[in-house]
Write a structure and sequence with these properties.
By secondary structure, this protein is mostly helical. It has 3 domains: about 90 residues, no CATH class; about 100 residues, Receptor-associated Protein (Up-down Bundle), CATH 1.20.81; about 60 residues. Helices cover about 85% and strands about 0% of the residues. The chain contains 12 helices and no strands. The longest helix has about 50 residues.
Length: about 290
């Protein structure tokens, strides 16, 4: 009976068997995916607060963390089993493990920079809407509809909280805690003060707009004056790779020893550590917090 069933399947048997294997693997990997989500969230527990700043939902975060896990496992297996480079495998694994923190830090810095650029114009726009006779929540909604992200998303969430019967001052304070940005905190403190104690919102927003504009002018000036230093950092960091490539062309047998011997791999790992430490130290020297 089983033979008759197999004969009826005929040419479609490979397709059916492949589908069944895929289904079995998917069912088997589902619990592993849940366990990996728990481990990755434990590892990045101190970064979860950044999800609110970046407005990333948990499902999207889990998806990218699974890709990170696949990259970690694949890189380790390839270096260990294919190329037989144990020390380099450990070094690459450490780099891959640090990628979530590095990536989220870069995204947060970019988002905060973009928000700083938008805050001065937003304060002027809200002040103009208030002069036109709109209430404060209506002014925020109008500016939110005319703005782009990241400011648009932040202001729209404030309006959603307000429509959900949350006081406007409380909605603003919640946004301040999520964003955690100095210029946005100035804006929120001014708005909350005017709401609770009274005052001319338009004049205060105009003053904040000028202050934020001056801060951005100083930041751009510092960025332009340190741009040459940042370029030098990356040039010097890439020079060892260029030197290794030249040596591989001139003396391939000697360069091969850097990868086939434990001493050579140790030298490579030490070089990577020194380069990474130098980059971090140099960027810390050139960075200026406001």
């Amino acid at each position: 009976m089983m033979d008759d069933f197999v004969n009826q399947l005929g040419p479609s048997l490979p397709i059916v068997s492949s589908a069944l294997i895929f289904l079995a693997v998917a069912i088997g990997l589902q619990p592993m995916g849940q366990v990996w989500d728990m481990l990755s969230r434990w590892y990045t527990r101190d970064l979860l607060k950044l999800l609110a700043i970046l407005e990333i939902d948990e499902d999207r975060f889990n998806f990218w963390m699974r890709i990170w896990g696949v990259l970690l496992v694949v890189s380790m297996l390839v270096l260990l089993l294919v190329f037989r480079l144990p020390l380099l495998a450990v070094a690459i694994a450490i780099i891959v493990i640090a990628l979530p923190r590095i990536g989220m830090g870069i995204l947060v810095n970019r988002r905060r920079t973009a928000l700083r650029e938008q805050m001065a114009g937003a304060c002027v726009a809200i002040a103009n809407c208030a002069r036109a006779g709109l209430s404060l929540d209506q002014a925020i909604q109008t500016v939110a509809n005319e703005s782009v992200d990241p400011l648009a998303g932040i202001l729209k969430r404030i309006c959603r909280d307000y429509k959900a019967n949350i006081p406007l001052s409380e909605a603003l304070n919640r946004a301040k805690e999520r964003v955690n940005l100095d210029t946005f905190s100035m804006f929120v403190v001014t708005m909350v003060t005017c709401l609770e104690q009274g005052g001319k919102v338009t004049e205060m927003l105009d003053r904040i707009s000028k202050s934020i504009g001056e801060i951005r002018r100083l930041e751009r000036r510092i960025e332009s004056e340190t741009a040459a230093g940042r370029r030098v950092i990356w040039i010097l960091a890439l020079f060892p790779l260029f030197f290794l490539t030249v040596m591989a062309l001139l003396h391939p047998q000697g360069t091969q020893l850097m990868f086939t011997t434990l001493v050579g791999q140790g030298l490579l790992v030490g070089s990577i550590v020194l380069i990474a430490g130098s980059i971090a130290w140099s960027r810390n020297i050139l960075s200026v917090d406001f």
